[in-house]
Design a protein that fits this description.
With about 300 residues, this protein is mostly helical. The chain is built from 12 helices and no strands. Helix 3 crosses helix 12 and helix 5 runs antiparallel to helix 7.
Length: about 300
Amino acid sequence: MTLASAPIERQQTLELAARKGRSLWDDSRRRLLSNKAAVASMIVLGVLVLIALIGPILWPHGYEHQYRDRLRIGPTLENFHLLGTDIYGRDMVARIMMGLRISLAVGAIATTVSLVIGVTWGAVAGFVGGRTDQLMMRTVDVIYAMPFIFFVILMTVVFGRSIFLIFLAIGAIEWLTMARIVRGQTLAIKEKEFVEAARAAGVGPWGIITRHILPNLLGPVAVYVTLTLPIVILQESFLSFIGLGVQEPLTSLGRLISDGQRELSDPWMLFGPAATMVLTLFCLNFIGDGLRDALDPKDR
């Protein structure tokens, strides 16, 4: 290709791109990738997830390993204790990595539970309407009125303490807001012309919900999911902080922070898990803000 033909080739490429156009999802992806804070947060969060998954396997100190000849030491390069040990001689880096794994797992699973229940409940209530909508949303209001801590204590008394109980308790509360958001969006979408066309074509209610309603809810739902994750992690941390969450031999960031605040004379026991928690929550919030800006049709 000669220098004279280069502008012609570029012009042809631009004309071809203009003819093909660009979808809304392509535009949203471009806007998201142009958000430096969101991109940096996705990279940092990806590194944190990798550390949580493979860190405890590669780290030279096992999660449950204890030093019998000494209780605790401060941060030191001796024996590779970068953040010291806890009161039982267990390496803090290993415990932080395991705590990060449990906190992220609770956040991901509880958010998935709230996503499935909330989207299904809200879409059905908004699309069907009438008495069914009133009954379903009044049920949401009744559950909303129950104090979260009372709900967790009640489930603990009935089912005992288990990490799966944490998933169930948090997921059983967080889907309520998701259901309200999805219902409101569904009420607006079901009046659109393409839904009326689907009805006229003989598509059943469930087919309209799955093929036309839910795909148009992906934007608001994706944004709310990224904002729900830090809320769920904070709730789990609060439960572990007051002794109702993850129990030994497992641990979480909230549990580690609770242990650290009782040992303020050894600040490394508090600063490590607290900094990890803050970094994780910042990343999730920046990603949520980036998705909200990228998917907001008013900014297009």
